[in-house]
Amino acid sequence: MDVMGDKATLFETGRFVQPSGEEPSRDVDEVGEDAEEVRLGMAARTGDAEAASVLGAMLLRRGDLDAAEPQLRAAASAGDRPAANNLGVLLHQRGYADEAADWWRIAAVAGSAAAAHALGRHHRERGDEPAAEYWLRQSAEQGHVLGAYALADLLEHRGDSRSAYWMRAAAERGHREAAYRLARSLDGGDAEPRTGREEEPGSGEASAEAEQWYRQAAARGHRRAALHLGAILEKRGELKEAGRWYLTSAKDGEARAACALGFLLRDAGDTESAAVWWLRAAQDGDGNAANALGALHAERGETQTAERWYRAALDAGDDNGAYNLGLLCAEQGRTAQAEQWYRRAAYAGHREAANALAILLLRGGDTSGAEPWFSKAAEAGSVDAAFNLGILYAGRDTEWDTEAAVRWYERAAAAGHTEAALQVGIARLREGDEQTAERHLRCAAGGGSAEAAYRLATVLDARRPPEPAHELGESVHDKTECEEWYERAAGQGHRRAQVRVGMLAAARGDVVEAARWYRAAAEAGSRNGAFNLGLLLAREGSEPEAAVWWTRAADAGHGRAALRLALVYARRGELAEGQRWAARAVELGPVEVAERAARLRDALREELSA
Question: Is the pTM of this model over 0.85?
Answer without folding.
Answer: no
